Amino acid sequence: MPSSVSVLLYSSNAGTREQVRTAVGRRPAPDIPPVSFVECATLPAVLLTLDASRIDACVLDGESTPAGGMGVCRQIKNEVFRCPPVLVLMGRPQDAWLATWSHADAVVTLPPDPVEIAATLAALLRA
Prior knowledge:
Blueprint: E1 5-10, H1 14-24, E2 35-40, H2 43-52, E3 57-61, H3 69-79, E4 86-90, H4 96-102, E5 106-109, H5 114-126
Parallel strand pairs: 1-2, 1-3, 3-4, 4-5
Helix pairs in contact: 1-5, 3-4
């Protein structure tokens, strides 16, 4: 088992990134190693990070601007070789169809519920 897992956390909003880090905590589940978050606030930073680093999962904010997390998800799923699993945060449950379009592996609504996001991220990291 690795000593830690690396999670790319993309949001143009520093407050949203803080909410996710706080909700997930140090370990999303007892069987998952500690999480090391790699924060990105822009699409170019996401692409550079995925190209240069080992990332085990991505959490993308669907409400980010100017590049929303669902569009970013679709782009990386189509362009990044062996793209890690992606959890998309969406503002409204009615946007679930967009998550399907984006090829997201999982979806959680904002603001993130700590139990739900930790369990969802843990499931992606186990896969």
